[in-house]
Design a protein that fits this description.
- This protein is an alpha/beta fold and about 325 residues long.
- The chain folds into two domains: about 120 residues, Rossmann fold; about 150 residues, 2-Layer Sandwich (Dihydrodipicolinate Reductase, domain 2).
- Strand 10, helix 9 and strand 11 form a beta-alpha-beta unit.
- Helix 1 crosses helix 10 and helix 5 packs parallel to helix 7.
- The chain is globular, with a radius of gyration of 19 Å.
């Protein structure tokens, strides 16, 4: 099966290529970049040298020859690709935010007009896979909403308030240098940012409302000096107290049979480079603290995108994603 990666020069694009190298049914045959056209992929992804001999290209949409296309492009760019690719019979997994939210919400949060909106399934497989097994398009969730929603979903129906506190690695900001991600500003430091108005909050609230439309949801992220990973602490305030044994039993049953969800003490190193989400919960009666760990480029981006591709193509969800994390 031929794969095109639209926007392959960034961190998520590089991880898509890396993970798909081990996929038994998929081969990356097209990797695009407008700025790097003609250059070999290993010019920006040196870890892939010897594994692929592709060069970056910049084809017209009409000339892309693929069975599946991953849109790993900036927000607002995906909306120019999605429908033309679908019209040509190419399945699409979109890693941007363009189709994650209702149109009015997207335009408010991102401050731009959506020029080609259609409703798309929101691809957290553990919660929604049955809604899009036969779909041709899947919107891949944001990295923060993935780790946060997986942490809270089992308890959300019993809660009146959910508060997320996330620590994220620097790669989540992308590969364009900025003052925020400049080494002296990140090293030996922790920086809260967008304290009450991060744009991923809209996705989080959408997902919580699908389970419990009366629960309130809040979120504050922090930048920490690591390359990859998101550790989310969810404070879930319950309507009625729950004991530790009841909470643990709830989580184990909710995620029973889910290969990529592991109920164990979450640490970033154990999920780095993988598609796993490690979760553990501890009860204080009417407050349950749930911590989740994901790789922001794995389960938070490329890994989950491949999992979603596997679903819409009828493959084993684990294909290309069986490798463990990179501890230590």
């Amino acid at each position: 099966m031929k794969i095109a990666i639209i926007g392959a020069s960034g961190y998520a694009g590089g991880d898509l290529i890396r993970l798909l190298l081990s996929h038994p049914r998929a081969e990356v045959t097209c990797a695009t970049s407008r700025k790097l056209t003609g250059k070999p992929l290993d010019s920006v992804h040196p870890h892939l040298k010897g594994y692929t001999h592709l060069n970056f290209e910049n084809p017209s949409i009409d000339s892309i020859d693929a069975d599946v296309a991953f849109l790993s492009v900036p927000h607002t760019a995906a909306m120019t690709y999605a429908r033309p690719l679908l019209d040509r019979g190419i399945k699409v997994v979109d890693l941007s935010a363009d189709y994650r939210l209702p149109k009015a919400t997207f335009e408010k949060v991102y401050g731009v007009a959506h020029t080609d909106y259609f409703e798309a399934p929101y691809g957290i497989p553990e919660l929604h896979r049955d809604e899009y097994r036969s779909a041709a398009f899947v919107s891949n969730p944001g990295c923060f909403p993935t780790g946060a929603t997986l942490a809270a979903a089992p308890l959300a129906r019993y809660a009146h308030t959910v508060i997320y506190d996330s620590k994220t690695g620097v790669s989540g900001a992308g590969d364009n240098p900025s003052a925020t991600t400049h080494y002296p500003n990140v090293a030996d430091n922790i920086n809260p940012y967008k304290w009450t108005a991060h744009r991923h909050l809209a996705e989080m609230r959408n997902e919580i409302s699908r389970i419990n439309n009366e629960a309130r949801c809040y979120f504050t992220p922090h930048l920490v000096p690591v390359n990859r990973g998101i550790l989310t602490t969810a404070h879930i305030l319950l309507n009625e107290p729950m004991g530790q044994e009841e909470v643990e039993d709830l989580y184990r049953r909710f995620y029973d049979g889910e290969y990529f969800i592991r109920y164990q003490n979450p640490v970033l190193a154990a999920v780095r480079g993988s598609n796993f989400c490690d979760i553990r919960a501890e009860s204080e009666g009417d407050r349950v603290v749930v911590v989740s760990a994901i790789d922001n480029l794995g389960k938070g981006a490329a890994g989950q995108a491949i999992q979603n591709m596997n679903i819409i193509c009828g493959f084993d969800e684990r294909d290309g994603l069986r490798a463990p994390g990179l501890l230590p």
